[in-house]
Amino acid sequence: MAALLALERLDKRYGAVHAVADVSLAFEAGRLHAVVGENGAGKSTLLKMAAGVVVPDAGEVVIDGVRLDQHTAREAIARGIGMVQQHFALVGVLSALDNVMLGAEPVRALGRLDVERARARAVAVAREMGVSLPWEAPVETLGVGDRQRLEIVRTLVREARVVILDEPTAVLTPGEAAALYTTLRRLADAGRAVVVVTHHLDEVRDHADTVSVIRRGKLVSSRPMNRRDGEAMAALTRDIMGEGPPPRLERRARQLGEVQLELRDVRRGRALRGVTLRVRAGEIVGVAGVEGNGQRELVRVLAGLEPVDGGVVQAGPVAVVHEDRHAEGLVLAASVRDNLVLGELARFARLGMVDGAALEREARGRLERARVVPPDLDAPAAALSGGNQQKIVVARAVARAERGARVLVLAQPTRGVDLGAARAIHAEIAAAAEAGRAVLLVSADLGELRTLCDRILVMARGRIVTELPPDAPDARIGEAMLGGDAAPGAEARP
Amino acid sequence: MIERLRGATTATVAGVAAGWLALALLVWAYGEAPAAIAGQLLSGTWGMPYGIGQVLYKATPLLLTGVAVELALRAGLFNIGAEGQLAVAGLAVATLGAHLPRGTPAWLALPAVLAIAPLAGAAWAVVPAILRARFGAHEVISTIMMNRIADAAVGLALARGLAIPGTVRTPDVVPGARLPRLEALGLTSLHGSAVSFALPLAVVVAALAAVWLARSRVGREVVLVGLSPTACAAERIPVARRLAAALVLSGAVAGLAAVAPVLGYKGYFESGLGAGAGFGGIAVALLGRGHPVGLVLSALLFGTLEQGGLVINARVPMEVTTVLQGVIIVAVALADARVRAALLGRGRAR
Amino acid sequence: MSFLAAVLSATMLAQTLRMAVPYVCAGLGGVWSERSGVVNIALEGILLAGGLAGVVAHVATGSAWTGVAAGAIVGAAIGALHAVIVVRGRVDAIVSGLAVNLAAAGGTRFLLRTLYDSSSNSPPVEGFRVAGLGGGSGVALLARTALDPLTLATAALVAGTAWTMLRTRFGLRVRACGEEPAAAAAVGVDVPRVRLAAVSLGGAICGLGGVALAYDQHQFQSGMSGGRGFIALAAVVLSGWRPGRAAAACVAFAALDAVQIVVQDQARAAGYAAQMLPYLAALVALWVIARRRGQGAIAGRPPAALGKAID
């Protein structure tokens, strides 16, 4: 079957980073094609070039035998390539229907919007997909699942023949993910090329017709998916990781000490609805859950950035790694030095003036320990790779934990970070626990949680709904993520 | 580091070049010969001692308002209110200076009047500072409003008794409160010009401001807040307090700018004295690129333009210099934006 | 005439209406620009430039309508310049706006001297005189003001802006660019182009306001905008960036201006106090609104992408 969409020798660099290196790939109509790889491997960038969102440095995007020549989103959409991005391209204050119309609005005289025609078309497409949406509601009031369906409807309204989805299940519960794939299968069966960018191997195993593996910007392999072949799955994993699966972090038996962090029925706005948990010195407790269930507010409350509406928080000083290093973890335009000691200037100040030498010593020490290469204290944080940036943020928190903070809270600490840096960060976390800190690890990465944690709490709809051992099966965890029926306070259930 | 210097130079060169080009165009449009006018401008300013003195005199308040705007800018704030802060401070200085006992010696009178200037300027910045820090109301609008209110308030105060009856000026300040002209230093070459000890004072303030921003704890935190308020808030740096501090300090320095015309030149305050230095300070800060030496050079440039405008006024309207300010600001900002983007190494997706 | 009677008279109403036109035009200019995401503090400069352009064209051709066209065109051009500097040049919108204001202030005075050899006013112009409604009574003045072509045009522009913003393709795109430009770009909207169009349109309307200002005084005077551009911007912010409400806020400020005239007749010192009124009012309103927004009232929050660096 001839390829509907062909990517030919696409290449893209961002400064020193070679994000996509000479990749050629073909997508066929009627197939569900998974593009897999680790975080930061370059898969998103590759598909964004196909969709006209990113301009390639070299190479061609060919649809139906004809090349794209302007490489704009407009052109790609006009030629039938639709993309649902990881961070939805929706305007929150506008209605669902407005968002579907935007960019391809049907008009009457004087540029007047033809709302009836737009609605009729949207409803028809939605019905074909098997969904229904509240068209007049502002998008910001819609849940994540609805927003995603809206994005898909939009690509279909534009008559996309290639539908690309970038990490679509990152924000869905396992049940919603299954529903999504049913819809995608329908689309593929209707003759479209469906492309899913993901790093979840289970989805690939269960749903993909073809699998392509990207590692460090290069295409490693591309073959039809054979579900029954166990060896094929192992080969796939090897393709992705480069070598065998990472060695499990050796978990030394740790002495557990006093309870250093305790939350009892903590409430905050609509996000936290009665969170109860306890962490002891030397323990690493994980909080699993799909984004949007209160994790962000939980971390903010623990960091002391938000007051609680109800309940009790008992903790000494807390060192925090926030989930968004670009917005909250780093002052990107400031030097690495400033970032390493951010918020601690009072410590180095005598009579209002900062002791430059002392600050320099401390910063250099932290930099060396974090093993950032090259070790340049003057460089602006923005110039560092994601992995190095995160190492700095973690180094700062760990240093605080050593200096008196008894509790270390980390949110998504290895998101968007390369494998080497991730392993270094995991080692720091384990070391902090061994040194007697109470560690709370909030993460959407189940693998990370399984590697590090002594026990895993599952958070759903603003509450901790259950507690599971790190080797609990995926299905069990997924089921818990959907829950929320557990009585508040139930925190220990094997 | 070298790249940053190169980037800064490019932007400055772009600004100055654009300025000269615009001047040439406007002069030519007016019907005069650009070269001749440019020559006249330069000879009337840097070509004679009186001219140099006048340039220095005009540069003094510009340097101070430039520092003021820069302080706010580092915090990510725009202090458009230097005009009003300066006017209120001028009135305050002149009034206090005039009401001191006649024989007050300089070592008593000068500190008093020199202290009230920044206090008055800071006071005039307090309302916008609180509005911004506590309520998030944009300081551009509030500082502009404060300028206009200052106009009216100063007029009201003068009409209601602070002025000499029948005039719009305050009485003279006592002799002890005056800042001696620089020619008192024996620099007879500056004879007749208005430049006073306010100039070295301004330079010292510029240097102190730079040190404060780079070495003091509050100053460094102000800079960090300006770069990323969210990250600072996440690390418990008191963002609102730092923003307020920056704006109030900015007002204080702007207020200090009033001492040059009031204490160093006229010896009294009148409506409109010092006007233009507030907006000029914005141009100085933007061209000065955040470096004290840059601010001084920039103040000298705009001081030259201001004095030069008077010199050529007989042949070409002096308003050209205002237009030039606008052109230079844009040219520098355009060049700067490209440099900054390149430095931070952002690869742009479209 | 007692103060109260003076304030509530037809004359006062007429004065308010007359003075409101430049404010409202500048306000609409601000709405178009800022809804698309571009902060525009250059309204003051555009009022001046538009006013001078109108007068110059009027003097040169003898036609008031040509003046109107010239004012709109110059306003659009300056708006476009501001937009290009901000959107393509990636310069901070406030820096660009300030520069435009400076250049306009100096430039208009420069042109006054160049063209008319005066540093303060232009030759007199006729403007629009509504025929057949002479007489000095308050009601007559009110009628003349209401039927002035520029007043009618302004009213139409208010309605037109509201309708266009909500019901047309252009309006939808402008709103999208002001809220989530990245999302708009992802679906193929040319964000820089939409912003350029919106800011230019706003500039044209603001330029009209400048022409109205000059025609009202039957000449152009140096610095005649007198802060109206900034007040109009404050009105836009206070009204939550909505055209109808911004216009209403502008009229309210114009009323304060008109009160000032009445008061100045009474006492000079009080005149200064009255002069402060519009600005004090703006500050107080700014505070009240900011407090309410801080408490979570989302109505009338700024367009999300306003003032943010693009990309």
SSE order and pairing:
The complex is a heterotrimer of chains A (494), B (350) and C (311).
Chain A: E1 3-14, E2 17-28, E3 32-36, H1 43-50, E4 58-63, E5 66-67, H2 73-78, E6 81-84, H3 96-101, H4 115-129, H5 144-157, E7 162-166, H6 174-189, E8 193-198, H7 201-207, E9 210-215, E10 218-224, H8 230-241, E11 259-268, E12 272-280, E13 284-288, H9 295-302, E14 310-315, E15 318-321, H10 325-329, H11 336-340, E16 349-350, E17 353-354, H12 356-370, H13 386-402, E18 407-411, H14 419-434, E19 438-443, H15 446-452, E20 455-460, E21 463-468, H16 474-482
Parallel strand pairs in A: 3-8, 3-9, 6-7, 7-8, 13-19, 13-20, 15-18, 18-19
Antiparallel strand pairs in A: 1-2, 1-4, 4-5, 9-10, 11-12, 11-14, 16-17, 20-21
Helix pairs in contact in A: 4-5, 12-13, 13-14
Chain B: H1 2-30, H2 34-45, H3 49-74, H4 82-99, H5 106-135, H6 139-162, H7 198-215, H8 217-227, H9 229-234, H10 239-256, H11 259-266, H12 277-288, H13 292-312, H14 320-343
Helix pairs in contact in B: 1-2, 1-14, 2-13, 3-7, 3-10, 3-12, 3-13, 4-5, 4-6, 4-10, 4-11, 4-12, 5-6, 5-10, 7-8, 8-10, 12-13, 12-14, 13-14
Chain C: H1 3-7, H2 10-35, H3 43-61, H4 64-88, H5 93-116, H6 138-147, H7 149-167, H8 169-179, H9 181-186, H10 191-217, H11 228-238, H12 243-266, H13 268-294
Report on the architecture of this protein.
The complex is a heterotrimer of chains A (494), B (350) and C (311). Chain A has 494 residues and is of the alpha/beta class. Helices cover 34% and strands 26% of the residues of chain A. Chain A folds into two domains: 3-241, P-loop containing nucleotide triphosphate hydrolases (Rossmann fold), CATH 3.40.50.300; 259-482, Rossmann fold, CATH 3.40.50. Chain A has 16 helices and 21 strands. In chain A, helix 4 packs across helix 5, helix 12 (356-370) crosses helix 13 and helix 13 (386-402) packs parallel to helix 14. Chain B has one domain: ABC transporter involved in vitamin B12 uptake, BtuC. Chain B has helices spanning 2-30, 34-45, 49-74, 82-99, 106-135, 139-162, 198-215, 217-227, 229-234, 239-256, 259-266, 277-288, 292-312, 320-343. The longest helix of chain B has 30 residues, at 106-135. By secondary structure, chain C is mainly alpha-helical. Chain C has one domain: ABC transporter involved in vitamin B12 uptake, BtuC, CATH 1.10.3470. Helices cover 75% and strands 0% of the residues of chain C. In chain C, helix 2 (10-35) packs antiparallel against helix 10. The mean pLDDT of chain C is 88. The chains are: A alpha/beta (494), B mainly alpha (350), C mainly alpha (311). Chains B and C meet through helix 1, helix 5, helix 6, helix 12 and helix 14 of B and helix 5, helix 11 and helix 13 of C.
